[in-house]
Amino acid sequence: MAEVTEIRATKRVIGAEFVSMREKIMTHWLVVVENDIEPRIEGPFKSDRMRINAARRHRRNDPEKRDGIFGLDISASGSPEFYHFASCEISPETNAV
């Protein structure tokens, strides 16, 4: 695995979507904790937008909000970054990005 020494804020165009260099060297995962007991990991996703859309689909199928939904980014060096989604990011009423 190549070592990453610097992350620049440069943007590259991939298809019709702008993707930051930071996103290109990260892998994006979705962690779903079913009934807040049983965890599972979905992914990797090609971009954060694709992961958010997957989280929104899951939330539409879980209207009682029994499942915990979290984001997990893993850098090229293997460092994880785990976080929660804001309700406005994944609520079914929010339009897909």
Keywords:
4-stranded antiparallel beta sheet, disordered N terminus, 97 residues, single chain, globular, alpha+beta, 6 strands
Can you tell me about this structure?
This protein is α+β, with helices and mostly antiparallel strands and 97 residues long. It has a domain of 67 residues. 22% of the residues lie in helices and 37% in strands. It contains three helices and six strands; from the N terminus they run E-E-H-E-E-H-E-E-H. The strands form two sheets. Strands 4-3-5-6 form a four-stranded antiparallel beta sheet, covered by helices on one side. The chain has a two-stranded antiparallel sheet with strand order 1-2. A hairpin with a 3-residue loop joins strand 3 and strand 4. The protein is globular, with a radius of gyration of 15 Å. The N and C termini lie far apart (32 Å).
Q: Biggest sheet: strands, sense, closure?
A: 4 strands, antiparallel
Number of helices: 3
State which percent range the strand residues make up: 35-45%
SSE sequence, one letter per element = EEHEEHEEH
Give the % helix.
Answer: 10-25%
Shape: globular
Beginning-to-end CA distance, first to last residue:
32 Å
Strand order in the largest sheet: 4-3-5-6
Which spans have pLDDT < 50 for at least 5 consecutive residues?
1-16
Number of strands: 6
In round numbers, the mean pLDDT is 79
Give the structural class.
alpha+beta
**Rg to the nearest angstrom?**
15 Å
